């Protein structure tokens, strides 16, 4: 991917004199959900006397994000990530608490606020399905009041950066999933926002497309100093882009700190998988780590993080290896361990 050239947005307005660009205090959201019993009786009762139960999607969440940070926002399904992002972008009103983003109150949805932020949701699209992406981009340019010259130069630079040249004139439905996601990103960045809220931006993409999106985001952040809050269920997105992670579970913040801290503390082991040239007895393999699985020539160990380099060197030197891979435990597994402790930690 090429450099961002004149795509660099103007210097970030830091709001209340050099304070955090995102400030969240005691944020909560309660959804009232209508409850209906099954059957005709339930339908009639529901029609005349509706009852509601309350879903506490987000409960007392507080954090601050500084300009230029890339923060992973993690949690299992239903933890409250999307709800939080919706409150941070002003799509829904908080039930309680305070939010400031780029010195604005999101729910006011003022023009200056909308110029400063963008929201990309992997499972939703803003580009019109049957039209060429270019047409949707022109609409966006008009909405954000970009001059023709500005639109053209940003379009040229971003489409080159995202390797989308030649793709924007065909209907969106004819683009591959990866191309469509990149076109969505282009549309979301045309107005040069300072704060990017990305909800599963690599959802469903193949490995190459995921890497391309990640590389683009990293470069965009480095070149422009844009702040990024990113949710993803793909660990690789988080490790490639985020130094800091915020974890929520059942609507509550349970960890806010460095990614290494999370992995070291809750996933002190890595998984080493090896394909041997010929089978070995279990006793010959135990010195390298705790054997998780041994099937013929395939062996999988759990190896302590601090012993990883030495262990891999020993395996390669002492055994005849055809293939070797090292993986982190799945993020869900790591998150599961964090849930068990239920502790909240500060950033530093
Ligand atoms: N509009 C709504 N009305 C009622 N309940 C809702 C609404 N939106 C979300 N919820 C509930 O709020 C909780 C949090 O949902 P949310 O979509 O924020 O989670 P999430 O962390 O983004 O999950 P996922 O990873 O699956 O996208 C869930 O229990 C969900 O069912």
Task: Work out the helix count.
Answer: 12
Helices and strands: which structural class? alpha/beta
Distance between the termini: 33 Å
Task: State the strand order across the main sheet.
Answer: 5-6-7-3-8-9
Question: How many whole angstroms does the radius of gyration measure?
Answer: 24 Å
Total E-strand runs = 13
Q: Percent range for helical residues?
A: 25-40%
Major sheet description: 6 strands, mixed
Strand content: 25-35%
The molecules bound to the chains, other than polymers, are:
adenosine-5'-triphosphate
Mean pLDDT: 87
Shape: globular
Low-pLDDT regions: 1-18, 344-348
Instruction: Name the helix and strand elements from N-terminus to C-terminus, one letter apiece.
Output: EHEEHEHEHHHEHEHEEHEHEEHEH
Keywords: ATP-binding, Nucleotide-binding, Transport
GO molecular function: ATP binding; ATP hydrolysis activity
Protein name: ATP-binding cassette domain-containing protein
Pfam families: ABC_tran (PF00005)
Short note summarizing the structure:
This protein has helices at residues 39-48, 81-88, 111-116, 133-143, 148-161, 177-189, 207-224, 235-241, 259-266, 282-285, 308-318, 331-341, and strands at 22-35, 51-65, 70-74, 96-101, 117-121, 195-199, 227-231, 244-249, 252-258, 269-276, 290-295, 298-304, 321-327.
Indicate the topology:
Blueprint (H helix, E strand, L loop, with lengths): L21 E14 L3 H10 L2 E15 L4 E5 L6 H8 L7 E6 L9 H6 E5 L11 H11 L4 H14 L15 H13 L5 E5 L7 H18 L2 E5 L3 H7 L2 E6 L2 E7 H8 L2 E8 L5 H4 L4 E6 L2 E7 L3 H11 L2 E7 L3 H11 L7
Parallel strand pairs: 3-7, 3-8, 5-6, 6-7
Antiparallel strand pairs: 1-2, 1-4, 8-9, 10-12, 10-13, 11-12
Bound molecules: adenosine-5'-triphosphate.
């Amino acid at each position: 991917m090429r450099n961002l050239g004149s795509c660099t947005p103007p210097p970030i307005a830091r709001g209340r004199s050099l304070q955090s660009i995102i400030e969240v205090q005691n944020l909560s959201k309660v959804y009232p959900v209508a409850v209906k019993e099954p059957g005709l009786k339930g339908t009639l009762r529901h029609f005349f006397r509706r009852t509601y139960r309350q879903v506490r999607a987000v409960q007392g969440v507080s954090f601050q994000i500084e300009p230029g940070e890339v923060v992973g926002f993690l949690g299992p399904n239903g933890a409250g990530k999307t709800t939080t992002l919706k409150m941070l972008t002003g799509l829904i009103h908080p039930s309680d608490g305070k939010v400031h983003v780029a010195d604005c109150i999101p729910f006011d949805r003022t023009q200056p606020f909308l110029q400063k932020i963008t929201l990309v949701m992997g499972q939703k699209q803003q580009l019109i399905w049957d039209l060429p992406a270019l047409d949707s981009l022109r609409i966006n340019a008009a909405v954000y009041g970009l001059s023709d010259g500005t639109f053209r130069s940003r379009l040229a630079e971003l489409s080159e950066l995202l390797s989308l040249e030649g793709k924007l004139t065909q209907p969106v439905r004819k683009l591959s999933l990866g191309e469509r996601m990149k076109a969505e990103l282009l549309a979301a960045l045309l107005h040069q926002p300072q704060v990017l809220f990305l909800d599963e931006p690599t959802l469903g993409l193949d490995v190459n497309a995921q890497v391309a999106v990640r590389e683009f985001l990293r470069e965009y952040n480095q070149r422009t100093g844009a702040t990024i809050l990113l949710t993803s269920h793909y660990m690789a997105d988080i490790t490639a882009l985020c130094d800091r992670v915020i974890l929520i579970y059942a609507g509550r913040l349970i960890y806010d700190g460095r990614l290494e801290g999370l992995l070291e503390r809750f996933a002190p082991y890595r998984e080493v998988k090896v394909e041997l040239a010929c089978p070995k007895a279990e006793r010959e393999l135990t010195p390298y780590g705790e054997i998780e699985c041994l099937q013929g020539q395939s062996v999988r160990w759990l190896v302590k993080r601090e012993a990883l380099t030495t262990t891999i060197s020993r395996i390669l030197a002492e055994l005849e290896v055809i293939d070797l891979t090292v993986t982190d435990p799945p993020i869900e597994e790591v998150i599961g361990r964090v849930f068990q402790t239920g502790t909240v930690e500060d950033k530093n």
